[in-house]
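Note on ligand handling. Small-molecule inputs were canonicalized before submission; formal charges were left as drawn, and no protonation-state enumeration was performed. Where a ligand contained multiple stereocentres, the stereochemistry in the source SMILES was retained. For magnesium ion, this procedure yielded the string shown in the input block below.
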Amino acid sequence: MSTAKKAYKRVTTKSLVDMKAQGEKIAMLTAYDYTMAQIVDGAGIDVILVGDSASNVMAGHETTLPITLDQMIYHASGVVRAIKRSLVVVDLPFGSYQSDPKEALRSAIRIMKESGAHAVKLEGGKEVKDSIKRILHAGIPVMGHLGLTPQSIYKFGTYTVRAKEDEEAEKLKNDAKMLEKMGCFAVVLEKVPASLAKEVAESINIPVIGIGAGNGVDGQVLVVHDLLGMTHEFNPRFLRRYADLHSEMTKAFENYRDDVKSRDFPSDQEQY
Ligand SMILES: Nc1nc(=O)c2c([nH]1)NC[C@@H]1CN(c3ccc(C(=O)N[C@@H](CCC(=O)O)C(=O)O)cc3)CN21
Ligand SMILES: CC(C)C(=O)C(=O)O
Ligand SMILES: [Mg+2]
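Structure output:
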């Protein structure tokens, strides 16, 4: 090891739980392909989520419902080939786990076997308890996802903040405790009041990763294209843009176009 390049210490489901215990916040981002995952991993992001938001961001669908298990596996395979350190979690897509626990396990096994990912995520609490149990019993780590669950958008009708009423907040708290008790290694809380999210994070020992859930949780997740400022029509309050790649890329494409039209590109040095 003395002359070899320093090896990265891989992030594991266990190290995430340790990070929570030690008060170190967890940074998570999505990625859907090899090139992006290489950059995200190299930047020291702890967890890469191959989100079903690929349905929106990569394929242009209006919701996350259309993306298939085969498509999720294709995205995840590229991501896994890129990573040296990050933990890779893959969303089980709509329709791949709701019918029955056996189908859920089969879907999770396909993701693990065919992509090489490290864990799966699925939306819901008590309703999907048996499926989560089945997957965990097979030795596959599970991340929960409560609050705004986009696969149920047609049940709720809007993407507004969730669990503002006592009854829904009570259910969410119980679901989070249940996920911890069952053996999930973490849970995503999406678009819920910050006070509720903080209360949940303080009531369980597994990390709570927030998106639109305030600063009292154990980590944050954003969609990478949103953070980079590539999606200009998506403007929720929780989004902080760290770049304006939409403008940067437009400038680059316009410059290239101009150089082609003006015969500036390619130059003598750029040909054989
Ligand atoms: N690009 C992208 N980023 C995401 O964060 C994301 C996706 N896609 N697709 C899947 C889910 C859907 N998510 C969403 C969708 C909408 C809002 C949202 O706040 N929408 C409106 C407000 C709607 C309302 O209040 O009724 C907004 O302000 O943009 C938040 C998260 C998060 N996920
Ligand atoms: C927004 C995150 C949590 C997600 O589930 C996704 O990107 O699909
Ligand atoms: Mg998702």
